[in-house]
Amino acid sequence: MKKKLVVLGGGESGVGTAILGKEKGYDVFVSDKGAITENYKKVLKQYEVSFEERQHTEEIIFQADVVMKSPGIPDKVELIQQLVKKGIPVISEIEFAGKYTDATIVGITGSNGKTTTTMITHHLLEKAEFNVGVAGNIGDSFAKQVAEKEYDVYVLELSSFQLDGIERFNSHIAILTNITPDHLDRYDYNFDNYIESKFRITKNQTESDYLIYDSDDEVITGWLKRNTTKATLVPFSLEKELEYGAFIRENNIIIKFNSEEVLMNVSNLKLQGKHNTKNAMASAMAARLLKARKSTIAESLSDFEGVEHRLENVLKINGVQYVNDSKATNVNAAYYALECMDTPTVWIVGGVDKGNDYADLLPLVREKVKAIVCLGLDNTKIIETFQNVVDILVETAGAEEAVKVAHKVADKGDTVLLSPACASFDLFTSYEDRGDKFKEAVRGL
What we know:
alpha/beta, Rossmann fold, UDP-N-acetylmuramoyl-L-alanine:D-glutamate ligase, Protein-Tyrosine Phosphatase, Chain A, 17 helices, about 35% helix, about 20% strand
């Protein structure tokens, strides 16, 4: 009798799981409450996977032996609660796919920097000639790659939602970039719940595994003081020299495991800014632990180009630099972006608020921001926080309008920065869509 796998959500992770489930002999059914896009329908038909859209047929779903839930579906949803009550396991794609690969896994999580760190780590290992795949929120899903490829190493970007759905999944090397309040709407507005969720990345680690983390981050070090993990702790810091891990001395990145080695000078990093130095240190340590050569790592860090929608320079028009940081979907990411600005800035901000507290940004806004352009349907909190801090504050309802307004108020030598600190779903389909529309509007000036 075939085991029944029900996949909730017909997006990238759902369709990838369906392909892998089919390959492993499951009877697979995909159910999506919304519409499934044509390209994914085509794939499901090609693999002869039965599916439904715009509904959840409970009598079929409740027959499942196991349910894979897409990360976008909250645990609080009635259907999920009922599945749990019935004792039907509800897991994430990485839990399902992880069972079917013996590859070494480098898992990367954090409130910010995880995409860049994932891309850098993959770049370093590829340059060092590892047979390496990259997945998570990047490219093809982990499950699809496990079904179709034979990689020795996977670099996975892991969100807290994906980690919530793991039981046995483990990363041989886990990287925790930082923890700041994000997605609190999914965690009952309780920061501690979100912190616990992030630390699930180390839950199944053993003595032979590694946890690379930012030792300047008080939330992370606070958790490590109160809790234990079996993994070998590998810290990195910009603020202090360490006995073990990575740190800065005389502007050089030093890596210290069994012996001490100078990796490279910070000025040679292709991606500048404090947060990028941290991302580079975390990636370099992961690559070193996997025995990549020091010279290859240094060379790769000096030519890594960066990630689309993350502090991406779009164009310079009449001496004004336009920067697309649409991937900044929380306050801390916007903080990083503003911290990197060294010219007067016109800041485009707003969208769907995830329980944001903008107060942390006040000192940076006072110092660097000359005008704020709101890009969202409800800008109340932004206006209340910043109306007495900047001289110009304008509300707009689309990328084109926002760019036109920013263009009007920016002077030669200024920067126009799209760094929304919010999700995009009120006006756009995704942060990529928001970034693309911004770039299109800039090119249309």
